[in-house]
Design brief:
alpha+beta; 4-stranded antiparallel beta sheet; about 20% helix; globular
């Protein structure tokens, strides 16, 4: 997707401004999404992910009560499906800056694997107002066989109440990092998500 131009739809811009989030299905298309899923699954199978649980106390004991997923950071990989996803996130950041005037710069990309068995991430916020940190969170899901009994929905806490989002294949969810609390409800089957956190242009790596 390098060199292509992405534009936000009017209803996406309105939803981001009014509700703090928008959702887009078919972000990459089914074929590319399936290849991203295969490459992400290969990373999981290779054992390259680490527990994301919080460590507490002097002995740094893992506390999985807050979150119990496994993560790794993803870098640009030309010639791969994950590389195409990276390029798509570059275009998304430019589109958000142009369409929603957010002034975004660099982003970090993380792969998260919830192995099932009730793996979850408690309610939290990705950033706090007044700090030079994450401004936009964009989550891309690659779960081709997701069913309601699998759980693992993303719950967004809006002013109007909660909104649960199914983590289905090729679905993108974008929200303002400083504005929305969210959580991952218990997953009862393996769940994959790739999250890009966008920073302001004034934030250096």
């Amino acid at each position: 997707m390098r060199g292509e131009q992405m534009e936000l739809k009017d209803d996406e811009i309105e939803a981001l401004g009014t509700h703090g989030f928008f959702m887009r299905d078919g972000f990459l298309g089914p074929e590319r999404a399936s290849t991203v899923h295969a490459e992400a699954q290969a990373l999981v199978g290779a054992g390259g992910l680490r527990p994301a649980s919080i460590r507490r106390g002097a002995d740094r004991t893992e506390d999985t009560s807050v979150r119990s997923d496994f993560i790794t950071w993803v870098q640009p990989q030309p010639g791969t499906a994950l590389g195409e996803l990276w390029d798509a996130f570059v275009q998304l950041g430019e589109a958000l800056s142009a369409g929603a005037y957010l002034g975004l710069g660099r982003f970090d990309l993380q792969l998260a694997h919830y192995p099932g068995g009730g793996a979850h991430y408690q309610r939290h916020r990705d950033a706090f107002p007044g700090q030079s940190n994450r401004r936009v969170t964009a989550i891309y899901y690659v779960n081709p066989d997701w069913r309601p009994e699998h759980g693992g929905k993303l719950r967004l806490y809006l002013d109007s109440g909660t909104r649960d989002v199914e983590p289905t294949l090729d679905r993108l969810v974008v929200f303002l990092s400083e504005q929305l609390d969210h959580e991952v409800l218990p997953a009862h089957a393996p769940r994959l998500a790739l999250t890009a956190w966008f920073y302001g242009r004034d934030v250096a790596r």
